[in-house]
Amino acid sequence: MSCFFDNGCRYTFWLACRLFLSVEDPNHVAKLADPFQLLAAGIIAMPIDLPGTPFNKAIKASKFVRKELLEIIKQRKVDLAEGKASTTQDILSHMLRTSDENGVFMKELDIADKILGLLIGDHDTASAACTFIVKFLAELPHIYDKVYEEQMEIANSKAPGALLNWDDIQNMKYSWNVACEVMRLAPPVQGSFREVLNDFIFNGFTIPKGWKLYWSANSTHKNAEYFPEPEKLDPTRFEGNGPAPFTFVPFGGGPRMCPGKEYARLEILVFMHNLVKRFKWQKLLPDEKIIVDPMPMPARGLPVRLIPHKKP
């Protein structure tokens, strides 16, 4: 038995620590993971800074994580100077060795804040997407079978021990259509806030400059005008040119679209490939409820029974 949401969070956080910071020691990752969970849980909490509130816990956790990141940054600067680290090994090295157009390098605290933002952006969102992919593939075996067929075609084309490459990812078209349709039905980011730059009128309502607006991915994705039978999972919606612009917004849209979209795509497809080629699975709680806190997630973490494929 496996509880996929918790495992998914651990998987995505470990992967982010490895790719962003080259932190692979399990003890070091665990040291960051627990306070990071508190930080992630308080991002969209009521801003009440009193002891015991999610917001207060998130503030304390962010200070701890930022302090740990600063220690990693300081050590990396030493390692780079001594030739013990590569300038291209991860995002941290890139940030330390890249200046702006005036030759000015980012300060250590600014780098820590940016790394923190990247970790937050990757943490719950990717794990929520992977969890709901597991949920829907368990519920819809005909969809699972098509994903399995595509992934096994790719797996069988590889030499023994060969890793996935970029061409393999590009060939996972049906799998990505499934992932997109899952994110349409259960968008990891339910929406976000934006500030109005100019007065405008929408549906007869005057929206003044300076107001805060909340754009909703969830309600946009369920608009029957653009997605007939909006509650039905139908990967064919993403064939050809796909949905109309700005109707499918799990990563936002426009100039402030999530910069980690392609990283998320890579992460999700590699996860699907390695899971599907090894296992089928069954949900252990068929009627498990979905809660939003602040990401959508199965209330009990989506426990499943993994069933290894029989070897031919």
UniProtKB/TrEMBL annotation:
<dbReference type="GO" id="GO:0016705">
    <property type="term" value="F:oxidoreductase activity, acting on paired donors, with incorporation or reduction of molecular oxygen"/>
</dbReference>
<keyword id="KW-0472">Membrane</keyword>
<keyword id="KW-0503">Monooxygenase</keyword>
<keyword id="KW-1133">Transmembrane helix</keyword>
<dbReference type="GO" id="GO:0004497">
    <property type="term" value="F:monooxygenase activity"/>
</dbReference>
<keyword id="KW-0408">Iron</keyword>
<dbReference type="GO" id="GO:0016020">
    <property type="term" value="C:membrane"/>
</dbReference>
<dbReference type="GO" id="GO:0016125">
    <property type="term" value="P:sterol metabolic process"/>
</dbReference>
<protein>
    <recommendedName>
        <fullName>Cytochrome P450</fullName>
    </recommendedName>
</protein>
<comment type="similarity">
    <text>Belongs to the cytochrome P450 family.</text>
</comment>
<keyword id="KW-0812">Transmembrane</keyword>
<feature type="binding site" description="axial binding residue">
    <location>
        <position position="258"/>
    </location>
    <ligand>
        <name>heme</name>
    </ligand>
</feature>
<dbReference type="GO" id="GO:0005506">
    <property type="term" value="F:iron ion binding"/>
</dbReference>
<dbReference type="InterPro" id="IPR002401">
    <property type="entry name" value="Cyt_P450_E_grp-I"/>
</dbReference>
<keyword id="KW-0479">Metal-binding</keyword>
<keyword id="KW-0349">Heme</keyword>
<dbReference type="Pfam" id="PF00067">
    <property type="entry name" value="p450"/>
</dbReference>
<keyword id="KW-0560">Oxidoreductase</keyword>
<dbReference type="InterPro" id="IPR036396">
    <property type="entry name" value="Cyt_P450_sf"/>
</dbReference>
<dbReference type="InterPro" id="IPR001128">
    <property type="entry name" value="Cyt_P450"/>
</dbReference>
<dbReference type="GO" id="GO:0020037">
    <property type="term" value="F:heme binding"/>
</dbReference>
<dbReference type="InterPro" id="IPR017972">
    <property type="entry name" value="Cyt_P450_CS"/>
</dbReference>
